[in-house]
Design brief:
Helix content: under 10%
Strand order of the largest sheet: 2-1-5-6-7-4-3
Strand content: 35-45%
CATH topology: Thrombin, subunit H
Number of helices: 1
Order of helices and strands: EEEEEEEH
Shape: globular
CATH class: Mainly Beta
CATH architecture: Beta Barrel
C-alpha cells in the first residue's frame, strides 16, 4: 500500500457555496439541508434517510438570495456517520439530468 495521495479524478471543480437541497416534491416535509460542496457534475450533502447507491431522485437546490434549480440525481456513494454528526448519512449525488437554465444557475452560484 502506498502513502502517496490518490490523484483527483474529478471532471469538475468543486466549491462550497451557500446552497440548500431538498427532495423536489410539493408533499416533501424534509427540512432543506446545506450542500457541503457542489460542482457542475454533482454535490455532497447530508441525509437522515437511508439512500441506495444507484437510486435516482429529483431534488431542488435553493440558492441564497432566491431562485432554485431542479435536478435528477443518482446516489453515487453513501457513508454512515457517527451519532454526533449533523445527520445519519453523508452522500454524494451525481447530476444525471437538468435543464440548461438550472445548470446555468449552478454555474452562477459557483462563480463560473
Amino acid at each position: 500500500m502506498s502513502d502517496q495521495p490518490k490523484p483527483d479524478r474529478r471532471r469538475y471543480r468543486r466549491v462550497q457555496a451557500p446552497i440548500l437541497v431538498r427532495p423536489a416534491s410539493i408533499f416533501s416535509r424534509v427540512v432543506p439541508r446545506r450542500v457541503s460542496d457542489i460542482s457542475l457534475g454533482g454535490l455532497r450533502t447530508y441525509s437522515d434517510d437511508p439512500l441506495v447507491i444507484g437510486q435516482r431522485q429529483e431534488i431542488e437546490l435553493l440558492f441564497q438570495g432566491g431562485g432554485s434549480a431542479t435536478l435528477l440525481v443518482e446516489v453515487a456513494w453513501v457513508e454512515t456517520l457517527e451519532a454526533d454528526a449533523p445527520a445519519k448519512f453523508e452522500c454524494g449525488l451525481r447530476i444525471v439530468n437538468a435543464r440548461q437554465q438550472d445548470i446555468d444557475a449552478i454555474a452562477k452560484a459557483l462563480g463560473d
